[in-house]
Amino acid sequence: MMRVVITDSTAYLPDDYIKENNIKVVPLNVHLGNEVFKEGYYDNKTYYNRLRNEKIFPSTSQPAVGEFLEIYEQLKPGDEAFVIVLSAALSGTYQSAEMAKDLLKTDNIKIHLVDSKSAAIGLGFQIYKVQEMLDSNETTENIINEIYKIQQNGKLFFAVGNLEYLVRGGRVSHLSGFLGNILQMKPILTLEDGKISLHEKVRTSQKAYHKMMDYLITDIDKIEKISLLHVDALEELKILEEILRAHYTGPIVVTEPGPVIGSHVGPGTVGIAYY
Fold it and tell me: Which residue windows are coiled coil (predicted)?
């Protein structure tokens, strides 16, 4: 019997980690002008350079049902799969995974399908914990309970470089995007029940970074993992890390979301995630 993790490309797991743990990854699609490609086709640097320099806005789409079904059909009777994917409120990926499960013509394979209610490292945190528990031969019940515990305790805050990406992607209202840019406001956004929502508005990037640290410091005594994330924003990331290091000396996971998430938040985005 084999127990495996299946996810989608928006977890942005390191390649060596994927190979080492035999994790199956289903890529989402990116639409850029007349070009359509699977996430991972372009490296982040190349893709974000195009976003900054070409006057085209991207869109994204979920994987086809058949892509999940193809992976499910590789499982053998008695196998168990934990399928953890991008928030169903942000993408139809969960729906594709669910439809594929319904099409699987066997009852001898256990598939536990989980809506992460998150994205990027928020999704990644759940996968890392599941894999850790699988390596320790934990029970399915304990693993599922731990996933929901991370979802309940996890937080993700981010500030975008330009609201236009979220506006065009339908993730915030056009009015909010217009006012935010005109007034040079820096909205701090978060994920609530898997949806992007406004957490607070401040005037400058520096204030946004300090505010995000304030949120973390409030929870610092009960935090297990911390990650800083950026979208083609290394200089901004360094500022955020300096602020964090004044309060925290433990390990920090630094990640850069790829084209799917980056297409919706845009270059210049930085954030913090923890649970």
Answer: none
Element (H, E) at 148: helix 140-153
Q: Which CATH architecture has domain 155-274?
A: 2-Layer Sandwich (3.30)
- Residue 151: how many CA atoms within 13 Å on its side-chain side? 23
**Residue 231: phi, psi to the nearest 5?**
-120, 95
Where are any strands of DSSP class E within the chain?
3-8, 24-26, 29-32, 35-38, 59-61, 80-85, 110-115, 155-159, 186-192, 195-202, 226-231, 253-255, 269-274
For residue 136, CA distances in Å to 83, 131, 132, 176 come to 18, 9, 6, 47
What three-state secondary structure class fits 8? Answer: strand
Identity of residue 4: V
Residue ranges of the chain whose pLDDT lies below 50: 174-175
The upper half-sphere exposure of residue 214, i.e. CA atoms within 13 Å in the direction of its Cβ, equals: 9
- Report the number of secondary-structure helices (H) and strands (E) in the chain: 11, 13
Contacts of 33 (CB under 8 A, 6+ apart): 54, 56
Q: What is the pLDDT of residue 175?
A: 42
pLDDT of residue 164: 81
In DSSP terms, which residues pair with 8 in a beta bridge?
26
Please tell me whether residue 99 adopts helix, strand or coil conformation. Answer: helix
Separation between Cα atoms, residue 26 and residue 95, nearest integer Å: 13
Residues 256/45, Cβ–Cβ less than 8 Å: no
Please identify, in words, the CATH class of the domain defined by 3-28+63-152: alpha beta
> Would you state the pLDDT for residue 75?
97
Structure tokens, 269: 């985005």
